[in-house]
Amino acid sequence: MAKEKTGNEEGKALTVMAHDIKAPLSAVVSILGVIEKGYVKDIDKVTELVSRARRKTETIIAMVNDILDYTLLDDKSKMKRGPVHISRLLSDSIGTMTPAAKDMNITLNYNRNAGRGKHVNGSYTFLLRAFNNIFMNAVKYNKQNGEITVDYREDIEKHTITVTVRDTGVGIPGDELDKIFQIFKRGTYAGKNINDGLGLGLALVKQIIEDHGGEIKLTSTVGVGTTIMVTLPLLSVNEKNGGTNEL
Fold first, then answer.
1. Where do the H-state alpha helices sit in 37-85?
2. Are 139 and 99 in contact (CB under 8 A)?
């Protein structure tokens, strides 16, 4: 089970969030002030400043999205559970990252028929958030002309399904692997390549998966790529007849 956040942890979280958002927000205000006061006359320079302000604003939006996800997990009443079609869920999630993958010319290897007919018990909305995060990380921290491979493996004895996501990205140093699921932690190499969000992503993913009785594991090699394995308990036929939660 995911560990509940204490008051001290929440206070620390809010302090870190506010501090991290303040820097890019101050930069945007500064850039707009320079433009507003007419200090820059050259149109190309103005365009460059506007572009910089836009990128900083996108960073702030990513941080706000992290905060919304963080606070959403506090309200478990929104986690309405029911049978979730795992293949359909992953197809929906992969669809959200496809445009970004195309922009980087990343090859996606995914058997859409794998896992067909298999269901897990949970919240479609929360599980979609978790896999969206996993897949978007596989794109963001990948290389131009890289690959992402999505596999299924069903364990009949344990009655579980494992979804494996492999990328050919920058990878994570070995001494950072034990911290990667901690809140506000981000790999060194990832931090050098992407400057958005608060580092909440995989911490949130881990909590969602564990709230669904599952397990998440990660292996990585710098310069080779990262593999994430998510294992979730499958529903029996009788449990599936109890309803659906796919919308």
1. 43-72
2. no
